[in-house]
Specification:
The complex is a heterodimer of chains A (about 220) and B (about 300). Chain A has a domain at about 1-80 and about 155-165 and about 185-220: Rossmann fold, CATH 3.40.50. The longest helix of chain A is centred in the C-terminal third of the chain and has 16 residues, at about 170-185. In chain A, α3 packs parallel to α5 and α4 (about 110-125) packs across α5. In chain A, the strands form two sheets. Chain A has a six-stranded mixed beta sheet with strand order 6-7-8-3-9-10, with helices on both faces. A four-stranded antiparallel beta sheet of chain A has the order 2-1-4-5, covered by helices on one side. Chain A has helices spanning about 40-50, 75-80, 95-105, 110-125, 140-150, 170-185, 195-205, and strands spanning about 1-10, 20-25, 30-35, 55-60, 65, 80-85, 160, 190-195, 205-210, 215. Chain A has about 220 residues and is an alpha/beta fold. Chain A is globular and about 45 Å long. A four-stranded antiparallel beta sheet of chain B has the order 2-3-1-4. The longest helix of chain B is centred in the C-terminal third of the chain and has 46 residues, at about 215-260. Chain B has two domains: about 10-55 and about 165-295, no CATH class; about 65-160, 2-Layer Sandwich (Alpha-Beta Plaits). The radius of gyration of chain B is 31 Å and the shape is elongated. In chain B, α9 runs antiparallel to α10. Chain B is of the alpha+beta class and about 300 residues long. The chains are: A alpha/beta (about 220), B alpha+beta (about 300). The interface of A and B includes residues 46, 105, 106, 110 and 150 of A.
Chain lengths: ~220, ~300
Amino acid sequence: MIKFDHVSKGYAEVSDALVNVSFTIEKGEMAFLTGHSGAGKSTLLKLIALVETVSRGQVFLDGQNLNRVSEQEIPFIRRKIGLIFQDYKLLNDRTVADNIALPLLIAGYNHQDIKRRVRAVLDKVGLVGKEKSYPLSLSGGEQQRVGIARAVVNKPSLILADEPTGNLDPELSTEIMHLFKQFRQVGVTVFVATHDLSQVVESGCRQLILDQGRLVSG
Amino acid sequence: MKGFFIVHLQALLFSLGQQLRTPFSSVLTIAVLSISIALSGLFYLLVKNVTHLTGQLETSNQITLFLGQHVSEQDGERLQRQLEKHRNIQATRLITKAEGLKEFERYSGFGDALKALNSNPLPMVVQVFPRLSLTTQQQLQQLLDELKVIPAVSVAKLDMQWVQRLKAIIVLVERGVLVLASILAFAVIFITGNTIRLELQNRQQEVVIAKLVGATNGFIARPFLYSGFWYGFLAGIFAWLMITGLMKLLQSPIEHLTRLYLGYQEVIFLSVMNSVILLAVSSLLGVVGAWGVLVTQLNRLKPE
């Protein structure tokens, strides 16, 4: 699903955010990306989500070389990825249902399909009854579940999560991780960047460790 | 296809809702836009009214012959009879000194001043109406030259001249209005563009999130384009109201004025076709302004 082939990424201010990183994540696999803050976890995810481009090397997503993707193709590749963020990135002036419906609206689904899918995904993340609420009236855990619902509503083949439990207490984190495992069970590839090692160990999943831009384990 | 329309309808209504949510700034923008549009519309109507007026003047080609002071009334009458037979002259009218004085008293209001004079200073006048077959300036000029050399005639004047001068002025004013309207159209584009740019800035977060979940630039641009459309369209409606209101205010003084000088003349308002064009153009300008900003700014807004 994801393949990094000798990837390096340098910024003007940080000479080497990623150094010669190579790894492969198979379809349907669930893997964690760990390391200290500043080790390059976010940068690595941004390369997959086409927010950043590599300086050297190649990134493949579902067999497609992301170096050769045109500006016009980017939106369509992003639709295959469900992105989850530490700060949730919700639209605070729209209801929960509208937030979750955004990817479906973008993909051009009709009204009935959108309603049906939003209801199904609300059920899955345990937010039934909150669809008319606004994000800021929800707890952190609930907001993150809205973020997850938005990420999976379009049935992506890959979920990328950047510190999804960074703002949540351990109990809520466990709930979120449980959700990820459920998605994996239906064949979705899940790739989570986190510094919460206890969750990683508990899950028993593969762990890729970054240290100062280098992949030291995985 | 049905889905396509629904998506556009949603964006159309959503963008209207956005404007209603910020009524104060929307009203300010629309006010500025509608004043720009109304100015163009008013100048257009002004020119249209004046053109209409001068269109009626066109038919009143005539040559006025002022006879010398020494010419007697009999000589004047003889000259008139001779001119009547001229192949290029349709009709003539002799205005004697006494008749001239009477007309002068009636129309000028200086009658009392004339009474102070010992003798009538007004010359005898022969009005010459050329045949209608004489249409070009050149033909009329030829006739004028012919009449000028008659010894009894001291001054021959083609009344076309002032009509032509007026027309030349109108052509100039028309050009001026066109230039002014173009400048104001650019103003409308820039004002809408700037407003859309601010909206884009305010909703930067939303744009970035939409991009992250796979929105194309087209999808993101749509509500902003419709926003531009609404600005233009609403400004067009307010401009129409302003123009019509102002013309209503001016209607009775203008009609009074034209009645005094030219006989009755009705004031022309915006026709249905004019109104449709006004709304279409103002809406289009709004969309163009929004589009210009979106094309340049949307690619710059990137996640992170």
